[in-house]
Amino acid sequence: MMAYAIETDNLVRKFGELRAVDSVSLKVSEGEIFGLLGPNGAGKTTFISMLVTMRKPTSGSASVNGSDVVREPGKVRQGIGIVFQDPSLDEELTAYENLELHAAMYGVEGSEREKRIGEVMRIVGLEDKLRDIVKTFSGGMRRRLEIARGLLHYPKVLFLDEPTLGLDPQTRNALWGYIRKLKEEHGITIVMTTHYMEEADSLCDRVAIIDHGKIIALGAPEALKSSLGGDTITVMTNEPDRLKKLVEKKGMVECAQPHDGKLTFCVASGEKQIPAVVNLARDSGISITSVSLHRPTLDDVFLHYTGKTIREEGASSMESMRMRRMARLRR
Amino acid sequence: MNRELTAVYFMWKREMTRFFRSRSRILGSLGFPFFFLAVLGTGLNGAISLPGMQGDYLGFIAPGVLGMVLLTGSIFSGIIVIMDRQFGFLKETLIAPVSRLSIVVGKSLGGMTTAVIQGLIMLLIAMLLGVQVEWSNILPAVLLMAAISLSFVSLGIAIASVIEDIHGFQLLMNFFVFPMFFLSGALFPINNAPPLVRFFSYIDPLTYGVDGLRFLLSGHSSLPIAASVTVVLAFFALATFLAAYLFSKIEG
Q1: Of A158, B137, B188, B194, which residue is the least packed, with the fewest Cβ within 10 Å?
Q2: Three-state DSSP class for A37?
Q3: Which of B103, B207, B116, B210 is nearest to B157 (CA)?
């Protein structure tokens, strides 16, 4: 039987009338990097808070490592590590003191604490910062320290809520490296939320795209992207109509559309088709000025299912009203 | 060691580490009461003798100022839970696989320890200013100080569990903490105060703490010591229960 790190069944959380998480059912396998992707206010954080026993579901059920989040919160907590979206370190303590406090509360024996603290600090590359007060740390260092802390009690599942929010690209890349290492070398299941498409794309084995509390698409990033019908090639040419007939006769493409001065068509693996198209045009004496290839991104997937791009967050007044309302209800 | 006890110990240790690391906070918290004692106390010492007051004025207000140190120090370390919430650390403790009660107990003991240390420093200062202290009663006095400050740390935690917002803090200080201090009989004997003031003084839990301390340290009091101790302990039980209950209700 396949072991699931996380299983939810029709999980719902309401804030007043608002269904922040709306009947979410999903399964995450052990050892997976699973991404929850969606705009701010989509319900990602609320969903995670229920899995980590911070909030109680309004209805439905969820289990983490086989323990029910409502009936056995203690068992769930012991088996998970969490890195919150907002910082949750004690800034006036040193890195070591923060980790020591955490280890003690998670039942790591006294003799074992120091060894593990050294170990997790090495994983995130902060081993020489043990005695520094957290106040002096940069944003990236704090996030790494929080990841280290999340690993102290050897959790099976690590939850990362927007782990790279507000970090510079370099730090973000380094952090991705650490996250991959956790999966590959330590076999930890990782559930992360993000609203960065590239992040979900490059890091996650599977992603669930969430909007208005519902899962609207679920699968491997590659599969989601190819479900949109492959790549789009755009050829700038003086004779788009003739080129269209040629490529269609060759059976190379479908859905070719000529418009003034250019021809757009979709193909399965675009980069392999480009040379063939170029050769075909040259052999027939059609001149081409440029060829461009567009591969679908998760942004396109999001656009496809919701009719809006993920970055529109806050742009529409409806959305920001919804978010403000949620923030108020949460208080 | 038992996990819950370990959690209590480390929460206590956290308070201690933070306390000793911020010397300016210690100094700041003692500054106001110090001037009360040093300026008001010594200034009025030769000038007034209030009806219902035994001994000199400096000796009279010293236990009152001690009560003030305990009150503000304790309320502050309880209310700091709001800051923990603001800076996110609260989540880390709320999510830990230990009971909320252990967190509250650890925090309260930590806040109590720091408040009592501040109280003892104040007592030393009072002595240096010439206040006569009954040193034979120092042990029961410290126990009473501990009970007083545990009550107010708990009250602080209870309030912080409900109000969430740092802006409420100033309001609380002005309309709750300072009146509590002024009504406690710290600066004047309540026996001869107008009935309305006396009424509020009698519902102010700090009144009993101050009067008890005054009895133990100077030998004078306006209420029987047994009554004061009973009220302090009852308030202690109530505040602790309230803190534990409200803190357990916090949802991240």
Answers
A1: B194
A2: strand
A3: B103
pTM, full prediction: 0.80
- Looking at beta carbons, which residues of chain A come within 8 Å of B84? 90
- Which parts of chain B fold into alpha helices (H)? 3-21, 23-35, 42-45, 57-86, 89-94, 100-128, 138-163, 168-172, 178-182, 195-203, 205-218, 225-248
Interchain contact B167–A (C-beta under 8 A): no
Half-sphere exposure of B187 (CA within 13 A, CB side): 16
Number of domains making up chain B:
1
User: Using one digit for the tens of pLDDT, what is the confidence trace for B10-24?
Assistant: 999 999 999 999 888
Query: d(Cα B164, Cα B160) in Å, to the nearest integer?
Result: 6
Q: CA distances (Å), B125 to each of A117, B21, B83, B136, in order?
A: 43, 22, 30, 18
- Lowest mean per-residue pLDDT among A76-80, A314-318, B96-100: A314-318
Residue pair B156/B78 in contact (Cβ under 8 Å)? The answer is yes
Instruction: Please identify among residues 42-61 of chain A the ones whose CB lies closer than 8 Å to any CB of chain B.
Output: 49, 52-56
**Secondary structure class of A254 (helix, strand, coil):** strand
Q: Quote the DSSP letter at residue A146.
A: H
CATH of domain A229-294: 3.30.70.980
Give the whole-angstrom CA distance, residue B89 versus residue B93. Answer: 7
Instruction: Give the C-alpha separation, A234 to A255, whole Å.
Output: 12
CATH superfamily entry for domain A4-225: P-loop containing nucleotide triphosphate hydrolases (3.40.50.300)
* CA gap A275, B34 in Å, rounded: 86
Domain that includes residue B93, residue range: 3-248
d(CA B75, CA B155): 7
Q: Does A77 touch chain B (CB under 8 A)?
A: yes
